[in-house]
């Protein structure tokens, strides 16, 4: 049974200060390393365990975001001499990477904005030190998707590094790199080949004992391939590009935390098809500071940037200072956030009515 010191699994003063019950052989903190339905895999100073939340936890927990996720520290109680524990509580998170709960049963559009589904936060992973957003320099390349990740990460003040993968397949990587640098808003952009282990030495800086990093990106960008290359082991099955039929194609199905020889912890996540925003206006403003600064220079605060005098945005687009596409992408996120704010209010109203009865 693998035992790890608390420090080596990411515990620090932030968690110490939360006033956990005194540790004993039967009651201690553990970190969630994987989840399969309602069964959690945990690691602690006392070894590895599986666990479920208590009935009392379920009863007291209203929101899905408050259930344990990979990366969380939880307070557990050893049920008996077995390797099974009861999870009593989730310690306050330092941060998390979250999105709006995905819509089941197809996407719906309303006024050009994705709409529907439960208006709740879905936590993908928590207590993170660096978030790696991966994108392929191939058909998968999608600038608006990277911008969405940036808004989501900004909401939690997470440090982001953008990995542009499959450089080995790419004739002109500079074109991709400069496009991403233009919108990266200070995040480092690293071209790599996960399969051929090119550019991976630059990642070593972030792979430090006790730190937790996560790989995010759509299906097929190479997250599991990167994990395997870093661990020099086939811990995570990857898909085969040769299998165009899609039959037997392996894709990661659950989030899991792995230990790298450096002592760093790496969370591999399944590809996310849907990436609806869960953020505030100020997060968007920070990610699109170039656009927002121009809008602030328009003479009228309600400028529609069509024909108003002294509009700063329209001439900037016409002269190529700002690309029209970037402005359109900003508007799409802006509309989606407005809709989210409305839906959150509706949801809270419904919820408070329900809980009164
Ligand atoms: N040429 C090339 N192929 C790569 C590279 N990295 C990954 N691939 C291939 O891309 C395909 C998808 O890789 P995966 O690692 O399974 O992708 P993933 O992001 O983990 O996908 P999901 O598990 O579905 O989220 C596999 O066939 C990999 O061999 C790379 O650097 N170069
Ligand atoms: Zn204007």
Automatic annotation (TrEMBL):
GO BP: ribosomal small subunit biogenesis
Entry GO terms, CC: cytoplasm
Cofactor note as given: Binds 1 zinc ion per subunit.
Cofactor(s) the record lists: Zn(2+)
Entry similarity comment: Belongs to the TRAFAC class YlqF/YawG GTPase family. RsgA subfamily.
Quaternary structure note: Monomer. Associates with 30S ribosomal subunit, binds 16S rRNA.
Stored PANTHER family: SMALL RIBOSOMAL SUBUNIT BIOGENESIS GTPASE RSGA
Protein known as: Small ribosomal subunit biogenesis GTPase RsgA
Organism: Paenibacillus selenitireducens
Native organism taxonomy: Bacteria, Bacillati, Bacillota, Bacilli, Bacillales
